[in-house]
Amino acid sequence: MSNITEEQIEKLVRNEEDEFSIETFRIKYSINPEIPAFYTGFNRLVEKGILKRLRRGWYRKVKRIEPITWWDGGDAVGIGIVWPYGIEDDSRFGVTDKALMGFDDNIEVFPNDTIVVAGSSNWGKTTFALNFLVNNLHLFKGVRLMVNEYKPERFKDRMKRIDWVDYWNADKPKFELLPVTENHIDHIVPDYLNIIDWLHISDELWKVAKHIEDMQMLLRGGINLVVLQKSKDKANAIGGDWPEFFPAVFFLLDAPGVLTVRKVKSAPSGQVTPQDKRYAYDIIERGSRFHSIREIKVCNQCWGNKKFKGNECDKCVGKGFVDK
Questions:
Q1: pLDDT tier for residue 2 given thresholds of 50, 70 and 90
Q2: Which of 84, 220, 257, 318 is the most buried (most CB within 10 A)?
Q3: Is residue 45 scored above 80 in pLDDT?
Q4: Domain residue ranges of the chain, discontinuous segments joined by +
Q5: Are 113 and 249 in contact (CB under 8 A)?
Q6: CA-CA distance, 59 to 149, in Å (whole number)?
Q7: CA distance 313 to 324
Q8: Cβ(67)–Cβ(31) under 8 Å?
Q9: For residue range 304-315, what is the model confidence (pLDDT) as tens digits?
Q10: Segment 122-127 mean pLDDT
Q11: d(CA 7, CA 39)
């Protein structure tokens, strides 16, 4: 190409990768390097904010983002989430004098939010996810459950014991069950309740937070509930504390049956969030439901160490906490 204009360069740049080399670009379109307008054109595109110079000879296309007309949107209306609770004894997470229904009263969830439930193996993550699913079927256009570990007999047995909600639609359930072990983002439905049990990242664990964020960005009225694994000897879930930054709600479930509220962005007007509260619970009926949910506090004899004067603390029976 013996001659080229800034307008022509701009049109050709649109077809390039997000990051590209000016030399590769020149060779691709057979542009004479002696043409002054070629390099001048790139400089003008940088000045106009169409390109960003990364380093010598390398550029990145600037993604155009339209301003949000936030004033044109409707008023924010929370979703009336029915959180897991004790079916037999009506015990609940988050109960206070002003929040008799617990989390139902003092945790606010909006469309397009993400909830994360992280915890050690066998301490209630799937119980929480399945209870959340059946309790909120009626609130969404659809529900999709993506499972990492699917054993037909075990799953069917657990679902048969979840009998407090009719989750059937004629001869099939009202939710979809998908065996998904990777690329969960490909299966997010924007206006559904999407439950990922659990998000599997085998390497580069720092990317967990990015996966959560990317899945949330696809939502258009629905919400995501993401289950994460946690090593029993670690304070945080996989990915460290990064996965806590993006969700609206973050719970940690750990031995010996303790839920810690690590993050709640907001509570309805007149309520106080249960941020940093801890609740003990039992799981009964072969992992199908919670029971005896109660708020707890650190044992004031062993101060959470579980031992007192070299022996198991007799006040908390070695648990490190007592009922509040």
A1: low
A2: 84
A3: yes
A4: 6-61, 103-271
A5: yes
A6: 43
A7: 17
A8: no
A9: 999 999 999 999
A10: 95
A11: 13
Map the chain to HEC letters.
CCCCCHHHHHHHHCCCCCEEEHHHHHHHCCCCCCCHHHHHHHHHHHHCCCEEEEECCEEEECCCCCCCCHHHCCCCCCECCCCCEECCCCCECCCCCCCCCCHHHHCCECCCCEEEEEECCCCCHHHHHHHHHHHCHHHCCCEEEEECCCCHHHHHHHHHHCCCCCCEECCEECCEEEECCCCHHHHCCCCCEEEEECCCCCCCHHHHHHHHHHHHCCCCCCEEEEEEECCCCCCCCCCCCHHHCCCCEEEEEECCCEEEEEEECCCCCCCCCCCCCEEEEEEECCCCEEEEEEEEEECCCCCCCCEECCEECCCCCCCCEEEC
Q: Which class would CATH give 103-271?
A: alpha beta
Quote the CA–CA distance of 226 and 244 in Å, as a whole number. Answer: 12
The pTM is what? Answer: 0.85
